[in-house]
Design brief:
The chain is mainly α. The protein folds into two domains: 151 residues, Orthogonal Bundle (Tetracycline Repressor, domain 2); 131 residues. It is 74% helix and 0% strand. The chain contains 15 helices and no strands. Helix 3 packs antiparallel against helix 5 and helix 3 runs parallel beside helix 6.
Length: 309
């Protein structure tokens, strides 16, 4: 963490401030994808064990968020999008965030090990380490490929959920991981295009700053196209089926079309409509991931009734 200081005004933090450290929006996506990974697995899991497993994954994700906010407090204070977070706004002290992150990390990993299996706990520990250390402390400030490589941290939850149920890693869990991994770059680059100078002001080497906006637009469409075979391929595994395939085809046509619209634009066109296309594609990308995993859940829910078999 740099020597830059954050606002340090007297303030008694509320529970809401501490909860905000855990990045609840990100945690909600983690909970959903982990739950899907658990429920689509071909092994019945006792509801209580399943609940504990997903809880531990959620707590681990929250711990990662707290550690990330502790480390990034200096740059968060510079960027408009993050300046109101608990640490840069002075509502929570950096040491508190570090302590919460470390404590929750240990709690989540140990409890998951005791409740489920070594593989699931090991994957959770690695995910926390990858996000807090490899991504936050190294990649984010070192390379424009930070989002590409760092996206692995957000891709592990369904694989961990699958491991909670099965104790192993298979092509199904790998493709769920790959779906999120390949989705992450165009999702975040669409955001980077319309937050404009935020990353540059903070010295973060986002692709928009190091290679320019035109290069970023080319990368957005390239990754969107590369995402298609991963998304469609998942439909031909044991957890896929007609519902998932139909959903994936429609969503990928929608997403690629949006990314192509971004690719065709230039800064003048984007400025003229206040980056409306980029903002739209960013929102579409959220629906994209949620509906893919929702379709997997629908396949699993209908399979006991003879559907697809």
């Amino acid at each position: 963490m740099s020597d830059m200081t954050v606002e340090n005004t007297p303030y008694e933090a509320s529970m809401g401030d501490y909860f905000a450290l855990l990045k609840p929006r990100v945690m909600s996506l983690v909970i959903f994808t982990a739950l899907v990974g658990l429920l689509v697995a071909p092994v019945h899991v006792h509801p209580f064990i399943g609940f504990v497993g997903v809880l531990c994954i959620a707590v681990g994700a929250g711990a990662s968020g707290a550690l990330n906010m502790w480390w990034d407090a200096d740059i968060d204070a510079i960027m408009k999008r993050t300046a109101k977070r608990p640490i840069p706004s002075g509502r929570v002290q950096p040491g508190e965030a570090l302590g919460i992150g470390m404590a929750l990390s240990g709690f989540a990993v140990v409890l998951l090990l005791l409740a489920t299996n070594l593989l699931a706990a090991g994957l959770l520990a690695f995910t926390i380490f990858f996000y807090a250390v490899v991504y936050s402390m190294w990649l984010k400030r070192a390379t424009p490929h930070n989002i590409v490589i760092g996206g692995a941290a957000g891709a592990f939850p369904p694989m961990i959920g699958w491991a909670v149920a099965t104790g192993n890693v298979t092509i199904e869990s790998f493709l769920m991981f790959a779906l999120i991994f390949m989705w992450t770059p165009p999702h975040f680059w669409a955001l980077a295009l319309f937050v404009k100078s935020d990353y540059g002001d903070a010295g973060v080497p986002m692709l928009t700053e190091t290679h320019g906006r035109d290069a970023t637009r080319r990368h957005v469409i390239a990754y969107a196209v590369l995402l298609v075979p991963v998304a469609i391929g998942l439909g031909f595994t044991s957890i896929g089926g007609p519902i998932y395939l139909a959903t994936a085809i429609v969503l990928n046509l929608w997403f690629v079309k949006g990314c192509y619209d971004i690719y065709k634009r230039n800064d003048a066109a984007a400025d003229a409509d206040n980056y409306a296309v980029e903002k739209h594609v960013f929102k579409v990308s959220l629906f994209y991931l949620f509906l893919h995993f929702g379709a997997l859940l629908a396949e699993a829910a209908l399979r006991p009734y003879g559907y697809g078999g």
